[in-house]
Amino acid sequence: MAGLTEERDESGKLNARGEIQEAFSFLNVRTWQETMEASARHAVDHLPAGVPVDLVSQYAQPWCLEVAILATRTDAGDRDRLSQLSAQAFAATGEPDDSPLQSEATAASAELQRILGKGGVPMAEPAFVGTAQTLPRLLASGWLALLEHPAEWARLRAHPELMPGAIEELQRYAGPVRSVVRRARASLDLGGVRIPAGDRVLLMLAAANRDPAQFPDPDRLDVTRRATGQVALGMGRNSCAGGTLIRISAAVATDALVAKFRAAELGGAVEWRSGSRFAWPAVLPATLRGRCSSGLVIAQNL
Ligand code: HEM
C-alpha cells in the first residue's frame, strides 16, 4: 500500500497482482502460521498485567516486524535496519507531496527494495512496509475498539471461533485507511453528482463501512456481526493484494492477546496520528488484567 508505484495495465489493473496474491496466498501464510503464533504467545507472555503498557511499541510493532521478515523471506539479522528503513518509508504516509519526508521515504524504499530484492518476493518493499508498518496500525485501531467494548473482548474470549468474523468487524468499525483516491477517466454522473473527466475522487472507505443500509446499527461494535462487504482493504480488482496475510496475522495477534488476559481497559490517553486519508492510535496504553496460563486457542479454524 505505502508508495505503490508499480506498473498497471490500461484498465488500471496491477500487473504484479497475481504474483503478489500467489506469494501471500492462504497456503503460504498457513506455512508461516505456527511461527507467527509462537512469537505472538512469546510476546504476550512478556506483557505486564495490572499496569499501563503501550500495545503498539510493546507488542504490535515488534511482532509485525517478525511477520514482515518471515513473509518476505528476509535475513532476520537485518531486523534493526529493516525496521528503521520501513519506518522512514512509512513516515511520509498522509504527508503533503512537498514534505521533506517524501524524499527520505523514497530513498528508504529504494534501499529496502535493494535489500529485500534478494528474497525473490514480488513487490517485497510495499509488502514489507505494509506488514511492518501498516499492520501494527490496523491492530492498534482494532484493539482500541475492543478496549472500549469490554463485553466484546469477553465474548471473543468465550468464543474464539468468532475470530475470523471479528477481524472483519474490527476492520469495518476501525480500519485505519479512511479513503482511497481515484481519477475520473471520463465525465460521469454518480448519485446525481456530475464528475468531470480528470477530477480526483475520494472513495470514503470508513464512511462506506458505516452505511446503515449495509450494516444495521453501524456505530455498534459487534464481534458476531457478519461484516462481509466491509471495504477497509479496498474493493474489487484494486483491493489489497495482501488481504489474506493481513487477516490471518490480525487474527493470530488478537487471539494471543485476548486468550492471555481475561480483561483489559484503556490505561491512559490514546495518542492519535491522523492525516486526510488515515487515522490510527500511535500510542495505545492498556491495562491488562487476569493473566491466564493458557494461550492460543483459535488458529485451527482460520
Ligand atoms: C494492514 C495493512 C494494510 C492495509 C490497511 C492495506 C490497505 C490497502 C487498501 C485500502 C488498498 C486499496 C487501495 C486502493 O484501492 O487504492 C490496498 C491495495 C494494495 N495492497 Fe494493501 N494494505 C495493507 C497491507 C498490505 C500488504 C502487507 C501487502 C502486500 C503483501 C499489500 C499489498 C497491496 C497491493 C499490491 C495493493 C494494490 C492492489 C491493486 O491495485 O491491485 N497491502 N491495500
What does this molecule look like?
This protein has 302 residues and is an alpha+beta fold. The protein has a domain at 20-161 and 238-291: Cytochrome p450, CATH 1.10.630. The chain is built from 10 helices and 9 strands. A hairpin with a 2-residue loop joins strand 3 (188-190) and strand 4. It is globular and about 60 Å long. The chain starts with 16 loop residues before the first helix and ends in an 11-residue tail after the last strand. Mean pLDDT is 91; it is low at 296-302. It binds protoporphyrin IX containing FE (HEM). Residues 1, 4, 14, 17, 20, 24, 123, 126-127, 130-131, 134-135, 138, 176-177, 180, 233-234, 238, 240-242, 245-246 line the site of protoporphyrin IX containing FE (HEM).
CA-atom Rg in angstroms:
19 Å
Overall CATH class of the domain at 20-161 and 238-291:
Mainly Alpha
- How confident overall, as mean pLDDT? 91
Shape: globular
Strand arrangement within the widest β-sheet reads 1-9-6
Structural class: alpha+beta
Largest sheet: 3 strands, antiparallel
- State the fourth-level CATH superfamily of the domain at 20-161 and 238-291: Cytochrome P450
Tally of helical runs? 10
N-to-C SSE string, H for helix and E for strand: HHEHHHHHHEEEEHHEEEE
The rounded distance between the terminal residues' Cα atoms is: 24 Å
**Beta-strand content bin:** 5-15%
| CATH architecture grouping of the domain at 20-161 and 238-291 | Orthogonal Bundle
Low-confidence stretches: 296-302
CATH topology of the domain at 20-161 and 238-291: Cytochrome p450
Number of strands: 9
